[in-house]
Every structure is written in C-alpha cells, then in structure tokens.
Amino acid sequence: MVIEKRVSKALVLENNTAEDVSRAMIEGGLQKDPFYIFDMDKAYQRVQYFKNMMPRIKIFYAVKSNDSDFMLKLAASLGLGFDCASPGEIHKVLKLKVSPLSIVFAMPTKSPEWMLYARQCGIKHTTFDNLCELNKIKQFWPDAKLLLRIRVHSDSVYDLGKKFGCDFETEAIDLLEEAAALNITVVGVAFHVGSGCSSPDSYVLGLQQVKQLFEHEDKAGRKMKIVDIGGGFLSDKTDRIDKVSKLVNNAIEELFPDPEVQVIAEPGRYLCDNSFTLYCNINTVRPVQVGDSSINMLYLNDGVFGCLRYNEPWHTVKRFRVHSEGEQLKPTVLWGPTCHPIDRVLDNLVIMLPACTIYDWLVFPSRGAYSMTMASRFSTLPEPHIRNVISQELFNILKDSKVLGLDDFLEQNIATPLPPTLPSIIVHSKILQTNYTLAV
Ligand code: PLP
C-alpha cells in the first residue's frame, strides 16, 4: 500500500454542505485518521470580499500560509497573483501555468541558487532589505525588479519586523541610492505589518513611509510603480478587514491617486484560514487527579508536530458529537500523538469539554493557515488528508478556467472514505540477526 500524500480530487456538492460531508464520514465510521475538510466556497467568499472591500488592491496570495493543491488552484483560477518565498513554492505555482510575472518572490534574503532558479523561471520581482542582498542580486540576478522592504511595527501576533525590513529613517534612502549606483532597478516598496495584525493604523503608517520613498526616487529622476502592503489581515472577525480597508483605501486615495501606481497585498491567513476544518480522533482517554480536580487527558491523533502547531488566541475546539442538554463540561487537556511533552495542543490551557470516548472526534475550525505547511516530520507521522468540497454553483463558475480542468474533479459519494495513512506491512522471509533481541 502506498501512502498517498494528499487527496487531489474535489467533491462537487449538489444538495449537501461541507458539514454533511464530515458527518457522513465520521458517523459512517469511515475514518480513523485525522482529516481536513476544505470548504472551497468559503475561501472563494474571502477572496471576493477582499476584492470588494479594497478594489484598488491586487491580491498576491501568500503561498506559505497554505499550499494545498486546491487552495492554489482556486487562487490561480480566480486570477490572483502569488507571493512565493522559496523555489518550492515557485515550482508549485508555475505548475498551474501561472505567469512568472504574477509572482513576487517576496523573500528579502535569498541564496545565489534561489536567485538563479527564480531568474531561470522568468520571475522578475523580488524584495531586498540589506546591502549584502543587493550585492548578491547585482552578481546573480542583475535584471531583477526590486521592491525595498521596510520595517513597520504593529500590534501583531507575529512581529516580522524583528527579522525583515530595513529601517525607514536610517537605512531606506541609502539602500535606494546603493541600488541606483549598482544600476539595479527598484520598482517599488514593500512592507508587512506582521501576521495577525490588530492595529489597522500600521498599514497607514507604512503607506506614508512608502510615499516618502516614492518622492525621494521621483526627485532623483527614478520612478517607482509598485506599493506592496504585504499580509497580516486578521481572519477571526470580518469587521476587522472592514476597518483596515477603510483606512487603507483612504490612504491610497490620498497618497497614491495616480492609477498607474500598482498597489498589491499578500494576504495569506485571511484567505485560507476559515475554510479549513481539522477533524481529529481520540486515541486514549486518561482521567487524572490534579489536587482537588479531576482532569480528562485526551490523546489525539494529531498534535503540535502535525497541523496543530500554533495556537493563536482565537483558536477553539469542540466535540463533534452534539453536546446534550445537562451534560457537564470537564476540565480537559489535549495531547498530540508523539512522545514529546511539548506536544500539548492549545498551549498550556486546560479547556472545558464534555466527556469524550475513543469513538469521539474533536473539531478544530479555522485551521487552514500555517497549519499543514508547518507540520514536521517528527515521528514519521502522516499528514492529514484533505477532503476538498465545492458547491455546484462555484464549480460552474470555475469549470471553464484554464487551471481547474474538469478532470481534477471526481463526483463521488459524500461518505467516501479517505485512503488510510498507515504504511504497508512488511514481512521478510529472512530476518537480519542483530545483537539485541527482546525476550519473549
Ligand atoms: N508576505 C510576506 C512577505 C510574509 O512573510 C507573510 C507571512 O509571513 C505573508 C505575506 C502572509 O501574511 P499573513 O498570512 O499574515 O497574511
């Protein structure tokens, strides 16, 4: 038996919902392994909402947040651009016949090999934030079109400014001048306010700084044309994006009224997070006494070394089986399937869940972003399969796209089990003699 990496077909839903599919799979007893349901309609709605709220902005989807087949196919068939951060990501996107001009290699520090790879693939745009990178670009990718990445701090869950972005006050102008002296073209400025940003004003601050750099280049007789406002858009509540978009739209209108200036964004989390739900099974239930309280320890079949690595403040979990009236909630700790004690899901929280058995499933909503792409190889655990589901309506919209050919879809029963992830059984006719064998 071959371990299939991920299911690459999608189920077209005629009269069912994504929830119906998970219910059929779980209640039919068809699943044992953890699995995802990818509700493509939800991701589509996010793309449309983003476009409607910020019509001037072109979306370059951040592949790192979720590079699953159908997420990429959906993005490509909707004509989005892509933010790629490695040759592997570039390869995946180009395989979908996306133009290299629709890819920004948004990684400010690249090896010479990465630069040569991108250049050979026909990619033109990349970011930089330091002199060492500029000198490498001069040598290995002199015809690149650069975006200077500046640092913009914000209230965010992940502050990317610690790692990337030059200082606006003390470094940005020097780097622009250095690039000009090296005869390298800088076509724009990029920033990223940090992933999971809860201070929308930070985008405005970034845009104001970009404007000053545009003015500097104008005065020097050089013209920049691209403003890249990065990602960071929070996905937990919709009103957050409403607030950001109002501020961003006003700032763009005021600072960059010239329609020739292209404004792009690289959202990841916002587009992919809420459309992926992870379903995990329980291997073992172990009640323990801690002081006066009895705590239920549940050992799951996925954990922090798999798709439950990060536990941002908005993450939740519930039992799949409906909570019956009068059923008490119990203090519960969730452990992943590996031997490591840091493999504890939802950080160090003791959460309240109804009692569970080994026949129960837990549901982790909004686990699309930075989950499967961050799963590790630890203990050789398999990746959860993804069950891609799409409504008939959306399927009709997408079916003519060059990316999503009809062949990619498989009409199937909603209760079709996913292939098992256990490796094949090996029985050797001759056994190697080792020095140590166990007593039987
Ligand atoms: N662009 C760049 C350069 C990034 O580093 C990231 C995330 O690390 C993103 C876009 C996507 O950010 P988010 O998922 O927060 O929208």
UniProtKB/TrEMBL annotation:
Catalytic residues (positions): C339
Domain of life of the source: Eukaryota
Lyase is among the record's keywords: yes
Keywords per UniProt: Lyase, Polyamine biosynthesis, Pyridoxal phosphate
GO cellular component, one term: cytoplasm
Ranges where the Orn/DAP/Arg decarboxylase 2 N-terminal domain occurs: 43-271
In-chain residues carrying the UniProt-annotated modification N6-(pyridoxal phosphate)lysine: K64
MF-aspect GO terms: ornithine decarboxylase activity
Needed co-factor(s): pyridoxal 5'-phosphate
Annotated EC: 4.1.1.17
GO biological process: putrescine biosynthetic process from arginine, via ornithine
InterPro entries in UniProt: Ala_racemase/Decarboxylase_C, De-COase2_N, De-COase2_pyr-phos_BS, Orn/DAP/Arg_de-COase, Orn_de-COase, PLP-binding_barrel
Pathway(s) annotated for this protein in UniProt: Amine and polyamine biosynthesis; putrescine biosynthesis via L-ornithine pathway; putrescine from L-ornithine: step 1/1
CDD domains (alphabetical): PLPDE_III_ODC
Recorded catalytic activity of this chain's protein: L-ornithine + H(+) = putrescine + CO2
Function: Catalyzes the first and rate-limiting step of polyamine biosynthesis that converts ornithine into putrescine, which is the precursor for the polyamines, spermidine and spermine. Polyamines are essential for cell proliferation and are implicated in cellular processes, ranging from DNA replication to apoptosis.
Assembly and interaction partners: Homodimer. Only the dimer is catalytically active, as the active sites are constructed of residues from both monomers.
Annotated family: Belongs to the Orn/Lys/Arg decarboxylase class-II family.
Protein name: ornithine decarboxylase
Organism: Danaus plexippus plexippus
Lineage: Eukaryota, Metazoa, Ecdysozoa, Arthropoda, Hexapoda
